[in-house]
Write a structure and sequence with these properties.
Layout: E1 10-11, E2 20-26, E3 43-48, H1 65-72, E4 78-83, H2 91-99, E5 102-107, H3 115-128, E6 133-137, E7 141-142, H4 143-146, E8 153-157, H5 162-174, E9 178-179
Parallel strand pairs: 3-4, 3-5, 5-6, 6-8
Antiparallel strand pairs: 1-7, 2-8, 2-9
Length: 226
C-alpha cells in the first residue's frame, strides 16, 4: 500500500471491548513473515519494560513473552531484548539490529506523554537500513502523530495482554487481522503489587550454560557474537 489516507482524527483500538489485532498497512510487503523470512532467519523483538496488565496472572513475567514464544513456533531464532525509557536504544541494541533479518518494535503509548517510545522507534527505523521494521502499537493512534513518522509496517492491537499478543502473532504469521469474542467478565482481581522495574543489566561473563536458553525468553541486552 503506497499511500495511506486517514479519514478519522484517531484510529482507536478500543472501539469495542473485544481484543483484536489488525494490520494497518504494510509498505514492505513483509506480512506474513514467511514472505521475507526463511525458517532460520533471525527475528529481533524489541519491547518496553512496563508494568504487566491487570489481567495478567503472573505479575513477575514479561507481558510480551507470549509473543516471542508464539513466533518461535514457526521461526525459532527469536531474540527478545527489552528497552527502557531511561536508557533508550543503546549501542548494544544497535548490534542486535545489525544481526537481525527482521525487527519488531513494540510500543505501548502514542500520546505526548509517551513520545519517548515513538522517538525510539524512529531511531530503530534508521538503524534498520534495508531490514524490514514492523511496529506493533498496543494503544490508540492519533492521526496527526502517526503521519509524523515513516513506519513502513504497523500492526495495532487493543493492549498487551496475553490474548492481544496471541492475536498479534497470528497477524504476523498468517497475515490476517484477528479478533476474539469476549467471554464472561472475570471476577475482579486484587490490586497487583507494583514491580520494581530497573534497566536491564549486562551479566558478568561466566562459563557457558549446560543448555541454550529459550530464544523467545526476554534477554538482558548484551552484545551479540561477531
Amino acid at each position: 500500500m503506497s499511500d495511506i489516507t486517514l479519514s478519522t482524527r484517531q484510529i482507536s483500538s478500543r472501539a469495542s471491548s473485544t481484543p483484536s489485532a489488525k494490520l494497518l498497512w504494510d509498505r514492505q510487503n513483509c506480512v506474513p513473515l514467511d514472505r521475507c523470512l526463511s525458517k532460520d532467519d533471525i527475528i529481533l523483538l524489541l519491547t518496553p519494560l512496563v508494568f504487566p496488565p491487570e489481567s495478567q496472572v503472573d505479575k513477575t513475567s514479561d507481558p510480551f513473552e507470549p509473543l516471542g514464544r508464539s513466533l518461535s513456533t514457526r521461526h525459532p531464532a527469536v531474540r527478545h531484548v527489552p528497552y527502557t525509557k531511561q536508557d533508550g536504544i543503546t549501542g548494544v541494541h544497535i548490534a542486535f539490529i545489525k544481526k537481525a533479518d527482521v525487527v519488531i518494535f513494540v510500543l505501548t503509548g502514542y500520546s505526548d506523554d509517551d513520545k519517548t517510545q515513538t522517538e525510539l522507534a524512529d531511531l530503530v527505523n534508521e538503524a534498520c537500513d534495508s531490514r524490514p521494521l514492523i511496529v506493533v502499537a498496543c494503544c490508540d493512534l492519533d492521526e496527526q502523530e502517526i503521519q509524523q513518522h515513516d513506519f513502513p509496517t504497523i500492526i495495532q492491537t487493543t493492549g498487551f495482554s496475553a490474548i492481544d499478543m496471541r492475536l498479534v502473532s497470528s497477524v504476523l504469521l498468517n497475515g490476517e487481522s484477528e479478533s476474539e469474542a469476549s467471554g464472561p467478565a472475570p471476577a475482579p482481581a486484587p490490586a497487583p503489587t507494583p514491580m520494581a522495574i530497573s534497566p536491564p543489566t549486562t551479566p558478568t561473563p561466566g562459563p557457558a550454560p549446560a543448555s541454550a536458553p529459550d530464544p523467545s525468553t526476554p534477554q538482558a541486552p548484551k552484545p551479540p557474537p561477531h
